[in-house]
Amino acid sequence: MTKKAFITGITGQDGSYLAELLLSKGYEVHGLIRRSSTFNTSRIDHLYVDPHEPGARLFLHYGDLSDGARLVSLLANLRPDEVYNLAAQSHVRVSFDEPEHTGDTTGIGSVRLLEAVRLSGIHTRFYQASSSEMFGAAPPPQSETTLFHPRSPYGAAKVYSYWITRNYREAYGMFAVNGILFNHESPRRGETFVTRKITRAAAAIKAGLQDHLYLGNLEAIRDWGYAAEYVEGMWRMLQADEPDDFVLATGQRRTVRDFLDVSFGHLDLDWRDYVRFDERYLRPSEVDALIGDASKAREKLGWEPTVGPDELARLMVDADVQALKFPERPWVDTVELESWGEVTGVR
Ligand code: NDP
Ligand code: GDR
């Protein structure tokens, strides 16, 4: 029997990799997309096959995490085996500008989806995209047992989603799990997150298209992994015998400064010649250091990342150099190049 998955946030970085992974495993994939006045599906266009074609296994449905009734009717009709809740207002800095909207989408959106599962009476496994931002000020290394101390409206909204997911597991016996993921990046990363901002700028500066790069706090420490490997961990969590919560991380610490060194160095550039400070990119309260301990996922799920932060930086710079040459395919990366025909069946 073909398994059916429902993904919110399918147009985002993780949604696109997860859709690819599930299609390669033979799933029928249904994605929630927001109506927008401009196209917002560039990260999944390469996976899309006209639904009238016999081989089509990817289907998109309009909806929004702010619209609970729509979520109920969609789930009741689709009856998926697995639900992945990846949708969120996911930018930490923006969450200080839009705290209420972030709370509504990143927090309450999760309970709307959990309620939709419950009210539609379906038996499904539920994945919640929890975040290392929930740890906030708690000192590293952080694991599943570290107490939360969020430092932003985004982090606080994710803590609510974490606990409401656990509550539905405990209260209703739902197979509902939290993946507590540390930062993961890729050539498909949104352009305003610091890694992608850096790798795009390095490529553009090298090509003579940009003079400067404006950044905020260069001392922040993060644990950066490769998104394509993290979606495999999400899937494994839903294949486990028992529902449980897991940290996914590389365990490697790098500062923003380190990421600049590797990215610009890869193109024989010295970032100090180009980077300027802009206080606009500081946060009212910062998360200084996130370094994850993913031993539980390694032991219980057999999940282990192979791409560390330096290789990741080089991979992203290479992809951004390529993207300048082929602007019509900005999402291109190595996973894509190796598995393109096999995954999509369209080439
Ligand atoms: P992105 O910002 O790339 O994608 C977010 C997705 O959510 C997009 O598809 C977006 O749609 C969708 N979305 C936003 N608001 C709504 C809404 N109200 N209703 C329906 N859909 C909505 O995030 P990532 O792919 O990087 O992350 C995926 C999830 O994992 C997020 O929940 C994020 O908070 C979380 N996370 C991410 C980490 C990371 O390092 N990447 C680490 C830990 C957790 P649209 O394209 O239309 O904007
Ligand atoms: P983060 O990622 O806040 O960790 O959240 P981001 O890349 O935005 O920031 C990382 C660190 O870099 C510093 N920084 C800058 N950040 C941005 N965006 N722009 C800048 O110009 C800049 N200069 C310095 C930040 O202050 C911060 O310390 C990401 C998101 O994907 C969340 O959704 C996810 O939950 C967490 O990772 C884990």
TrEMBL record:
Binding site for NADP(+): H212
Presence of the UniProt keyword Mitochondrion in the record: no
Domain NAD(P)-binding as annotated: residue spans: 6-316
Molecular function terms from GO: GDP-mannose 4,6-dehydratase activity
Catalytic reaction list: GDP-alpha-D-mannose = GDP-4-dehydro-alpha-D-rhamnose + H2O
InterPro entries per record: GDP_Man_deHydtase, NAD(P)-bd_dom, NAD(P)-bd_dom_sf
Cofactor: NADP(+)
Protein EC: 4.2.1.47
Leading EC class: lyase
Record keywords, A-Z: Lyase, NADP
Job of this protein: Catalyzes the conversion of GDP-D-mannose to GDP-4-dehydro-6-deoxy-D-mannose.
Family: Belongs to the NAD(P)-dependent epimerase/dehydratase family. GDP-mannose 4,6-dehydratase subfamily.
PANTHER family: GDP-MANNOSE 4,6 DEHYDRATASE, GDP-MANNOSE 4,6-DEHYDRATASE
Matching HAMAP family: GDP_Man_dehydratase (MF_00955)
Protein name: GDP-mannose 4,6-dehydratase
Gene from which this protein is expressed: gmd
